[in-house]
UniProtKB/TrEMBL annotation:
<keyword id="KW-0378">Hydrolase</keyword>
<protein>
    <submittedName>
        <fullName>Putative MutT protein (DGTP pyrophosphohydrolase)</fullName>
    </submittedName>
</protein>
<feature type="domain" description="Nudix hydrolase">
    <location>
        <begin position="3"/>
        <end position="129"/>
    </location>
</feature>
<dbReference type="InterPro" id="IPR015797">
    <property type="entry name" value="NUDIX_hydrolase-like_dom_sf"/>
</dbReference>
<dbReference type="GO" id="GO:0016787">
    <property type="term" value="F:hydrolase activity"/>
</dbReference>
<dbReference type="InterPro" id="IPR000086">
    <property type="entry name" value="NUDIX_hydrolase_dom"/>
</dbReference>
<dbReference type="Pfam" id="PF00293">
    <property type="entry name" value="NUDIX"/>
</dbReference>
<comment type="similarity">
    <text>Belongs to the Nudix hydrolase family.</text>
</comment>
Amino acid sequence: MKPIYPAVKAVIVKDGKFLALKKKGVEGEVFELPGGRMNYGETHGEALFREVYEETKLQVQPFILYDTWEFFHEEYQITGVIYLVEMPEEGEIVLSDEHEEYRFFSLEKDSLQMMDIVFASRMERWDMEAIKGFMRK
């Protein structure tokens, strides 16, 4: 039986835009959401805090569970959840060694063309205006 790994990702929102990261060694302009695999014994919130901090040095807290995602590889499967998160008022983004760039993309469907297809295929179904409105409250 092939393994299934649980994972968490964050849509970190600031001023109507979301944070995306580009991994080193990935061809082209392909970005992904911050986050990663959970460790045994971690809650979603703990894993999200740890992963986002490891990748960006930002200290975030899950705001709302928003969606799920799957990635199928011939050797394993990743099943994950996506949280909406507000950008912390304090702290500066410092990328980990596994990433080479970060960008803030507008919460618009047109921005998704630079996202990894795993996430873009989920995000294109989202109500971006509702997310913008909800994150302003």
